[in-house]
Structures are given as C-alpha cells and as structure tokens.
Amino acid sequence: MSRDSGTVHFGIVRVDLHIPGSDGLKAKRAVLQRARAALRDELGCSVTEIGFQDTWQRSALGLAVAASTHTGVERVLDRVVGVLERDPRLVVLGTAEDVDSMDADGPDTLPPR
C-alpha cells in the first residue's frame, strides 16, 4: 500500500508506573507532568493519565500515536518505555499496546463534506 492511500495507522499503549519517591499528589503530578512533556516533545504522542489519579505512588498513562505507516507507529511505541525510564523517579511496571489501521475506503469512513 502506498503512503498516499489514505490509510491511517494508529497505536495506543497503556503504561503502568510506580513513583516510589512521591510523598503526595502534588509531587506525583510534578513527575508525571515532566514525563508527559517528554513523551509529547520527543515522540509526538498524545498522553493522559488514565488510572490511579488519587494514589500517590502509582499511575497509568494512556498514549496514542498516528502515522502514515505501520512501521512508523511501531517505531514510536518502541521508544515509549525508554523515554520514561530515563527519569530515575519512575519505574515502569508494565505496558499493553495495540496497533491497527483504518482505510479511507472502509465502511467506517465519513463521507466528504
């Protein structure tokens, strides 16, 4: 399939984190703010906290990325853990990811305006 076929490739990943040095929600959010900024700036991901919002030392982040190729999505997702692990205040407990695509000619495509 060519790059201009209109297919969008996308990936999502859930990352479960431990923040062992956090002594409150304010400290946790400061660590997560830097992590989210690094993921957005370096990888172009959309990032949000999706779990453990009221727990001091735990978090779950949800990330999404879109690209024109499946390989492009995989390259970004393969770097997520590395970006997070550069911060010594974070411990990655686990990840789960899904990669898929949507064709412009598929039944779920909106009609042109």
Q: Can you characterise this structure?
A:
This protein has 113 residues and is an alpha+beta fold. It has one domain (8-99): Alpha-Beta Plaits. It is built from two helices and four strands. It has a four-stranded antiparallel sheet. It is elongated. The mean pLDDT is 92.
| Name of the top-level CATH class | Alpha Beta
Count of discrete alpha- or pi-helical segments spanning 4 or more residues: 2
- What form results from the Cα inertia axes? elongated
Mean pLDDT: 92
Q: What's the arrangement of strands in the largest beta sheet?
A: 2-3-1-4
Helicity level: 25-40%
CATH superfamily: TT1725-like
**Structural class, judged by helices and strands?**
alpha+beta
End-to-end CA span: 25 Å
As for the CATH topology, it is: Alpha-Beta Plaits
SSE sequence, one letter per element? EHEEHE
Total discrete domains: 1
What's the CATH architecture name? 2-Layer Sandwich
Number of strands: 4
Taking the sheet with the most strands, its summary is: 4 strands, antiparallel
Low-confidence stretches: none
Strand content: 25-35%
Please tell me how large the radius of gyration is. 16 Å
